[in-house]
């Protein structure tokens, strides 16, 4: 009996002791025993963020300023990171997305708490679906005020967990450096994507300011008052304990899935036997670590006809004999082997239904879900490889050294290309009932834009035509939203592109509907000296919707716009606007040349082109 009682008491004491140790751990008491809180230090958490970003080679942070995040912006500027402020938070994220795509590093945006963050949701989702490595940093209410009705306090983590690969809320200043390092590595590993870090305001400002907010003016009397005062003081001391100890800020290793040697060998055998192979190259093939020029050379060495989509547009230059732009559905029916290199069997490939069931299919994708999407219904891969598409193509080409696709196959497809494009060219010369022929406008822009131009696609009808007419001159010279089909990317994408490639012409191809989302960024272009060129196909209509809505439902409701003076808006924001209608048709080339000269002199330019209706319909830009 006595032994049982001793055992019971021992268990109780052990449980109590364990509880006390756990409480001490949660309250930071154990950590504070060994790590000092420097109450006199003027340093703040924003400096820790800036140190990590600089160590990772981050050159730009895009933002719309707010008091919650001011320490991050000020600290970044002090260490040489350029702060680029926009007129909408979504634009800041779109700009960071563009930087990620063009630079091969992580794009970074910082916005304030609450509505600042909710304004970014569409842009973050677009980055997720486009597989862009992006770090979003958001402000938040203080650590003790969350859930208590503080200004702009909402459950931000629940919003971003479905959109991001990694989400974290900083609870002490000492967590900032390891958390930011981890987030940057995760953004680039596996299938790249956005990550989110929430920074409560008291983790970013210096001790002497935060301590003023922790003081209780009229604490409860007696024991409760002492407990409250002790708890607040302990929370404050733990918040800054060990904050300024030296920590490693260098990049963590990035994990990239690669095809195995055995998988490569199996693919070599399939490709070597194919008589009519086709490559469908998607945006994922442009991701680091393989340089895009190496991928281009690999494709040229293979000699296999290629259809390019998304960021892969321009991979083979302007006039490659193996780049096929037209009649993709017919080519896939004939092909005896199809290589899906970063291309997904979603709506863009009719969920896999366009693939010939007799074809051998090699699918390569970093994401297993995307790799096998709809393979349970409409198609089956012969070989499915969860790995990096770019490095796969280079290794495949080396393994097939000396072997080339039979030349009559790409030549026959190219002949079909020429026939179709000559037909389209003839359509560009037709007169529309009103205003200018949009196809003629696009052909003219394509002929006159410089060889180093980057094209940003933001729209529906007009941009869908541009995708079949305009030819990116090289790799990483085409930016479109990707699979999400988001409108409004134009201003942010162009801003990020011009900062990454300041010597290149950056053209935004806008529909008049999509322009409304980001026309205010002409102010940003002016203030940050990023002179871009925008050509707006202004048909006073959401034409891509109207074209189906009217014949099916008999009404044009909500589709009509106006022939708005968008060029005047550009002038008002410090840019230069031109109105181009039928009366200026003969001067079209001269006006474009004048616009190009304006950008060389530092002005952002908007060409407001009044266009008519045509019967040219090839599909969406994401095809």
TrEMBL record:
Residues 264-396 form the Thiamine pyrophosphate enzyme central domain. It is a single-pass membrane protein. Residues 44-159 form the Thiamine pyrophosphate enzyme N-terminal TPP-binding domain. Signal peptide: none annotated. It is found in: Endoplasmic reticulum membrane. GO terms for cellular component: acetolactate synthase complex; endoplasmic reticulum membrane. Residues 458-601 form the Thiamine pyrophosphate enzyme TPP-binding domain. Its cofactor is Mg(2+); thiamine diphosphate. It holds the Pfam family TPP_enzyme_C. It catalyses: 2-hydroxyoctadecanoyl-CoA = heptadecanal + formyl-CoA; (2R)-hydroxyhexadecanoyl-CoA = pentadecanal + formyl-CoA. One of its GO terms (molecular function) is thiamine pyrophosphate binding. Its main location: endoplasmic reticulum. Keywords: Endoplasmic reticulum, Fatty acid metabolism, Lipid metabolism, Lyase, Magnesium, Membrane, Metal-binding, Thiamine pyrophosphate, Transmembrane, Transmembrane helix. This is 2-hydroxyacyl-CoA lyase 2. Belongs to the TPP enzyme family. InterPro entries: DHS-like_NAD/FAD-binding_dom, THDP-binding, Thiamin_PyroP_enz_cen_dom, Thiamin_PyroP_enz_TPP-bd_dom, TPP-bd_CS, TPP_enz, TPP_enzyme_TPP-bd.
